[in-house]
C-alpha cells in the first residue's frame, strides 16, 4: 500500500512501546524546532512592525511627490508651476515649502535648527498638526507663529503659548561684500511658539509660516524651494510623476517618497536579509537534532526493519519510513512553533509586555508572508536533513 511508510512512521512517533531514549530524542527534536520557529517568527514580525513604524515616521517628513529645482534653490516661475499642478486630476493637495538652516537664541540657549516654512495647505499634504500634543498649530494669521519638535523645545526651554516670551531666530544674510557691523551678518526675527509636536526624525525642526522663511532669506513672498504633493492614489506616484515631468520641463526634478528614502530602505532590506540568514542558520543547526532522532529510530527499530524487509518491503519504502518520520517531527515543530509565535505576537500587540523604551513597546505586525517565509525555511531544511539521514537505513541494517 502507498500509505504504509507514512503509517509506520506515524506509529514510530506515537507508540509508547519504544525505548525512553527514542521518545526523549524525538521530543527534544520537535521542541527545538518549535522554539527556533517561534523565535524566528517573533523576530521577523517585530521587524515588520519596525518597518511599519518607520513608514509612518517617514510619511510625516516626505510627501508622495516632491518637486524641486534641478539647479539652485528656488523654483523658477512658481506661478506657472502651481497652475500646472492645479490642473492635474490625480493630485489631492499640494503645498509650497522653504526649508533652510537657521540659528535660534533664547535667553542664552542657542542651537542650529532646520526651519521649514510652509503655507496653510501643508497640513492637507502632511497632517503634522495631528502630532501636536501641547499647544496648537500656527493660525497663519501672523508670520512669527511656529511649532517645534518636543526634543528641541526641551533643549532650549522655550515656553509654549506664552505671550510674554519670544525667542529669536537668525539666518545669515545672502550676498557678498565687507561686513562693517554685526547687524549686517544676520536677518533676525522674534517668534512665538504656539505648540510642540512629536517626531523623533524631526528632532531639530521648527515649522513656521512660509512668510517667516521668505523674510529671513530676503526673498519675495511667492517663492518656494520645493512643492510637496499629496496624491489621491499614492500607488500611482510613478505614473503621475512621468506625466507631470513632461509638462514641467527639465529645469525641475521630482522624487517619489521611495526615491527620497532609497538609502534608508536599502539599509532596512539589508538588515532584514541579515536577520533572515541568522535565524535561518539557527533553524539549520536545530535540524541536526532531527538527524539524531532519525539515527536513533533506525538503531532502535533495526529488528523491526529486518522483519519488514523479509516480508517484502523494498529498501526505498523503508527509507521513506524514516524520511516520513523526520518530516512529521518537522511539521509538528513548525505548526506548534507558529502557533506559539503568533500567540506571543498577539499578546505583545495588545498588551505591550516588551518595551523598546519606557514609553514605547516593541512594535509587532503579523503578516501572512512571515508565516510563509518561516514555514518554508524550516520545512526546506527539515526535508534536506530527513532525506540525507534516511539514506543510512541500509547501513544500519548491516551493522
UniProtKB/TrEMBL annotation:
<keyword id="KW-1133">Transmembrane helix</keyword>
<dbReference type="InterPro" id="IPR025857">
    <property type="entry name" value="MacB_PCD"/>
</dbReference>
<keyword id="KW-1003">Cell membrane</keyword>
<feature type="transmembrane region" description="Helical">
    <location>
        <begin position="273"/>
        <end position="300"/>
    </location>
</feature>
<dbReference type="InterPro" id="IPR003838">
    <property type="entry name" value="ABC3_permease_C"/>
</dbReference>
<dbReference type="GO" id="GO:0044874">
    <property type="term" value="P:lipoprotein localization to outer membrane"/>
</dbReference>
<dbReference type="InterPro" id="IPR051447">
    <property type="entry name" value="Lipoprotein-release_system"/>
</dbReference>
<dbReference type="GO" id="GO:0098797">
    <property type="term" value="C:plasma membrane protein complex"/>
</dbReference>
<keyword id="KW-0812">Transmembrane</keyword>
<protein>
    <submittedName>
        <fullName>Permease</fullName>
    </submittedName>
</protein>
<feature type="transmembrane region" description="Helical">
    <location>
        <begin position="369"/>
        <end position="389"/>
    </location>
</feature>
<feature type="domain" description="ABC3 transporter permease C-terminal">
    <location>
        <begin position="277"/>
        <end position="392"/>
    </location>
</feature>
<feature type="transmembrane region" description="Helical">
    <location>
        <begin position="321"/>
        <end position="349"/>
    </location>
</feature>
<feature type="transmembrane region" description="Helical">
    <location>
        <begin position="21"/>
        <end position="47"/>
    </location>
</feature>
<dbReference type="Pfam" id="PF02687">
    <property type="entry name" value="FtsX"/>
</dbReference>
<feature type="domain" description="MacB-like periplasmic core">
    <location>
        <begin position="26"/>
        <end position="244"/>
    </location>
</feature>
<keyword id="KW-0472">Membrane</keyword>
<dbReference type="Pfam" id="PF12704">
    <property type="entry name" value="MacB_PCD"/>
</dbReference>
<comment type="similarity">
    <text>Belongs to the ABC-4 integral membrane protein family. LolC/E subfamily.</text>
</comment>
Amino acid at each position: 500500500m502507498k500509505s504504509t511508510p507514512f503509517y509506520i512512521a506515524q506509529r514510530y512517533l506515537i507508540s509508547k512501546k519504544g525505548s525512553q531514549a527514542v521518545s526523549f530524542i524525538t521530543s527534544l527534536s520537535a521542541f527545538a524546532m518549535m522554539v527556533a520557529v517561534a523565535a524566528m517568527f517573533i523576530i521577523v514580525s517585530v521587524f515588520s512592525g519596525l518597518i511599519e513604524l518607520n513608514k509612518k515616521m517617514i510619511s510625516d517628513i516626505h510627501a508622495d511627490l516632491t518637486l524641486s529645482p534641478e539647479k539652485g534653490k528656488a523654483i523658477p516661475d512658481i506661478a506657472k508651476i502651481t497652475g500646472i499642478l492645479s490642473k492635474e486630476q490625480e493630485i489631492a493637495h499640494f503645498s509650497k515649502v522653504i526649508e533652510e538652516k537657521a540659528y535660534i537664541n533664547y535667553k542664552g540657549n542657542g542651537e542650529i535648527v532646520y526651519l521649514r516654512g510652509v503655507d496653510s495647505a501643508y497640513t492637507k499634504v502632511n497632517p503634522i498638526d495631528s502630532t501636536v500634543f501641547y499647544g496648537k498649530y500656527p493660525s497663519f494669521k501672523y508670520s512669527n507663529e511656529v511649532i517645534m519638535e518636543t526634543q528641541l523645545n526641551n533643549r532650549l526651554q522655550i515656553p509654549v503659548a506664552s505671550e510674554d516670551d519670544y525667542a529669536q531666530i537668525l539666518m545669515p544674510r545672502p550676498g557678498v561684500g565687507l561686513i562693517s557691523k554685526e547687524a549686517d551678518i544676520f536677518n533676525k526675527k522674534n517668534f512665538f511658539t504656539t505648540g510642540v509636536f512629536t517626531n523623533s526624525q524631526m528632532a531639530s525642526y521648527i515649522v513656521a509660516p512660509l512668510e517667516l522663511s521668505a523674510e529671513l532669506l530676503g526673498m519675495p513672498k511667492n517663492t518656494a524651494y520645493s512643492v510637496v504633493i499629496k496624491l489621491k492614489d499614492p500607488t500611482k506616484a510613478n505614473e503621475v510623476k512621468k506625466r507631470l515631468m513632461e509638462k514641467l520641463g527639465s529645469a525641475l526634478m521630482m522624487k517619489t517618497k521611495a526615491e527620497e528614502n532609497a538609502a534608508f530602505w536599502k539599509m532596512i532590506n539589508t538588515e532584514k536579509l541579515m536577520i533572515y540568514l541568522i535565524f535561518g542558520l539557527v533553524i539549520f543547526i536545530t535540524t541536526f537534532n532531527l538527524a539524531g532522532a532519525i539515527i536513533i529510530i533506525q538503531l532502535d527499530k533495526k529488528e523491526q526493519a529486518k522483519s519488514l524487509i523479509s516480508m517484502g518491503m523494498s529498501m526505498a519504502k523503508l527509507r521513506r519510513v524514516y524520511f516520513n518520520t523526520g518530516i512529521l517531527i518537522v511539521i509538528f515543530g513548525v505548526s506548534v512553533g507558529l502557533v506559539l509565535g503568533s500567540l506571543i505576537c498577539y499578546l505583545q500587540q495588545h498588551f505591550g509586555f516588551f518595551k523598546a523604551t519606557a514609553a514605547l513597546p516593541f512594535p509587532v505586525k503579523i503578516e501572512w508572508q512571515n508565516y510563509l517565509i518561516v514555514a518554508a525555511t524550516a520545512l526546506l531544511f527539515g526535508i534536506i536533513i530527513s532525506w540525507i539521514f534516511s539514506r543510512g537505513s541500509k547501513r544500519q541494517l548491516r551493522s
